[in-house]
From TrEMBL:
Domain DRTGG, residue spans: 213-317
Highest rank taxon of the organism: Bacteria
Annotated keywords: Acyltransferase, Transferase
Name of the protein this chain belongs to: Phosphate acetyltransferase
Top EC class of this enzyme: transferase
Listed EC numbers: 2.3.1.8
Subunit structure: Homohexamer.
Record GO terms (molecular function): phosphate acetyltransferase activity
Protein's UniProt keywords contain Transferase: yes
Gene: pta_2
Pfam assignment, any one: AAA_26
Amino acid sequence: MAGIYVGSTAGYSGKNMVIMGLGLKFQKEGYNVGYYKPVGAMPKEVAGKLGDDDANFVQGVLGLEEDPAEVTPVVVTQDFKVKAFSGRCEDLMGKISEGYAKLSKGKDVTLVAGSGSMYSGKYCGVDGVTVVKNLGIQSIVIDRFQKELNYDYLVVLKEALGDNLMGVVLNDITPNFLDEVENLIVPFLNRAGVKVLGVIPKDPLMGAIKVADLAEKLGGKVISAQHKAERIVESFLIGTMQVENFLTHFRKNKNAAVIVGGDRSDVQLVALEGDSPCLVLTGNLYPNDIILTRSEVLEIPIIVVRDDTFSVAKKMETILQRHKLRDIIKIKQGAQLVSSNIDFEHIKKSLGLK
C-alpha cells in the first residue's frame, strides 16, 4: 500500500496536473491507483454528499468513483472555520487516517492530494506536513516559478519531513531562467539533501483560457463574433502605447488578448488585423461601427468590461496564473509534461514498486 502525498509551496502550483499525470502513468503501467484528498477547500455537493470540487474532477479523470465524502473527509466550509478558530477542532487527523486506510486498501499506490501550501490547515492540525507524518507516507512537493523559486522553503521542508520527503518538482520554469535552475538551484538543492525529481518547463497552453470563460471571470460581455468565443488566450498585452510601439510587442506575443480603452480604435484595428484571439475593451466603452464590422469579418471576439485598463490587467494576471486545469487538451498536455520531465523510475523505486 504505497502512498504519495503531492503538496506544494503555495496554492495554484500544479498539484492536480502532477497527480493526474502520475495517476495516468501508473495506470498505463498496470498499477491499481487510488486517490485521496484529506482536506478540501472547494466544497461541492455530489449526489447529496459534501466533497471537494477538485477531488471530484480528478476522480473523473482517473476513472474512479469513490464516495466524495470518503475521498475528502475534511471539507473547509465557513462553519468549519468558525469552529476551528474557536478552538473546537474535533479529532480530524483520526478521521483522515481512517479514510486513508480504507481508500488505500487493495491499491498498489494511492495519490494523496494536498490543499493550498504544505502548511495550509495548520490552524486546525491538518497541514500537509502533519498529514504526511501521521500517514507515514512519502511526499512530493511542487514549487512553481513565479518571479523566483522558494528554494529556502524547500530546504525547511526537508528539515521538517526528513525521509518522508521523496523529492521536489520545479514547475513552470521560463526559458530564460532554465539555465540558472539547472546549473545553480538544482545542484544547491541536491547538496541540501533535497532530491529534484523533475524540472517542468513553462507551457503557455497550461495557463490558457477560452475567451468565453475569460469574459465571465472579468465580469464582461462578448459583444461580437460570439461564435468564436472558444478561441484560446495564453497571455495579454496592454494597448496604451503608441501604435508603432504596440506593433513591436504585439508581433512577439502569440495568442495574446489585447486590453485597450474603448476609445483607442487605432490600437483596436491593429490587434484585429494581427489576429489577436480577442480584444478586451475597458471603461464600458463600446467600439465604433468600423471596429465592430472588422471584428465580425475577421471572427475575433470583443469583450467589453466596466473596469479601467489597470484593474483589468491585474485581474487578467491572476486569472491566467490560477485558471483551473479542466479542458481535455490541457489534461493531455499536462500528463505529457509530467511523463516527460519527472523521474518516474525513481518514484517507483522509492515506493518499492516493481
